[in-house]
Amino acid sequence: MRKILYFILNFNDYKFEPTAVIDHTLLKQEAREAEVAKLCQEAFEHSFAAVCVNGCWAQFALQTLRALHAQSPDKQPVKVACVVGFPLGASTSETKAFETKQLVEVRLRPHRSCRHR
């Protein structure tokens, strides 16, 4: 009860930033490096919560966002989110688990299919 009352009494002091809950997304199969870089730049400029990309672009997005954050360390960092089992979600749970494990274990290193796009 105290927490609710505290929130009600201090509601005017609470600042909600809508951009802090937005994931900026680029999931098209034919995405190019320049498009992913632009996505990261826009997300960083607007202080979005995350960029959401296919796993093959995760490492590139992470490096791009780290470089942007190094230039402006006072800004909130943008996270990288990845999809698995995309676009249909029709793959088995085991396949999705493998995809997820691969992204985590290789520290989001890109797949060869995306390196030369």
Written overview of the protein:
By secondary structure, this protein is α/β, with parallel strands linked by helices. It has a single domain (18-115), classed as TIM Barrel (Alpha-Beta Barrel). Helices cover 44% and strands 12% of the residues. It contains five helices and three strands; from the N terminus they run αβαβαβαα. It has helices spanning 2-9, 33-45, 58-71, 93-105, 112-115; strands at 23-26, 50-54, 79-83. It has a three-stranded parallel beta sheet, covered by helices on one side. α2 packs across α3. The longest helix has 14 residues, at 58-71. The chain is globular. The mean pLDDT is 82.
Work out the number of β strands.
3
Number of helices: 5
Q: Report the biggest beta sheet as strand number plus sense, adding barrel if it closes.
A: 3 strands, parallel
Percent range of helical residues: 40-55%
Radius of gyration computed on alpha carbons: 18 Å
The CATH class is identified as: Alpha Beta
- Kindly identify the CATH topology: TIM Barrel
Spell out the helices and strands N to C.
HEHEHEHH
Percent range for β-strand residues: 5-15%
Which structural class do the helices and strands define?
alpha/beta
Low-confidence stretches are none
Termini separation comes to 55 Å
Outline type: globular
How would you name the CATH homologous superfamily? Aldolase class I
Write the layout of secondary structure elements.
Elements: H1 2-9, E1 23-26, H2 33-45, E2 50-54, H3 58-71, E3 79-83, H4 93-105, H5 112-115
Parallel strand pairs: 1-2, 2-3
Helix pairs in contact: 2-3
